[in-house]
Amino acid sequence: MFRRREQRSWGRMASDFVYPRGGWTRAFYYVTHRLRRLPDTPERIARGIAAGVFTTFTPFYGMHFIIAALIAKTVRGNIIAALLGTFFGNPLTYVPIGVAALKTGHFLLGKPLAEGTERSFGGKFVDAWSDLWDNFLTLFAARPADWHGLRIFYDTIFFPYLIGGAVVGAVVGVACYYLTLPAIRAYKRRRLNRIRKKFEAIKRQAETAPTAPEPVSDTAPDRPPDHPARGE
């Protein structure tokens, strides 16, 4: 019932993630429409959105859905709203999110983010994953493990990103809560008024409709018995 008519390939899904088929504007309105029609209270929906937005500022890429659902459950927010809120992080926003989180984290830790370092942001990711793979192979080879690249990645990228992302994400998440809550309340109120007016119109129409006449019986009424004539 809910399956797609046309099954998408992995390449198609990757392409839609970078740029949706209908464009980012249509994707934004689709997510907004789904959020407004969630069957829950505005407060729970807004808390779910805040949880999803906060999660996008964490460095746990690939686990945002799981983390958003756990945070939403903790703060008693709507889990579906939290999952939809993670779309705040997308290819258009990942770069500014990462820059804000890293700069804030380095500032709070007292380690200014050095410009023009020997390895770029992406290069340190590559070094970290390379260390993980190489050290996994050492389980089957007679050579020691080397965590140098992963240690640099943790000290200069992951930990500052985690600290800065938590601070910036909390600020943006709280802002999203207070921005979306009145909007969701207003939408729910308008929708409830539309439904109430529709039922009132149906009720008035039913009250003013002419009543159908009672059906006339086809059988003739019973004739009174004949009285005998006098003198008989």
Automatic annotation (TrEMBL):
UniProt keyword list: Membrane, Transmembrane, Transmembrane helix
Membrane-traversing stretches: 45-72, 79-102, 158-181
UniProt cross-references to InterPro entries, sorted A to Z: DUF2062 (IPR018639)
Region (Disordered), start-end ranges: 203-232
Stretches with biased composition (Basic and acidic residues): 220-232
PANTHER family (UniProt xref): SLL0298 PROTEIN (PTHR40547)
Protein name per the record: DUF2062 domain-containing protein
Source organism of this protein record: Pontibaca methylaminivorans
Phylogenetic placement of the source organism: Bacteria, Pseudomonadati, Pseudomonadota, Alphaproteobacteria, Rhodobacterales
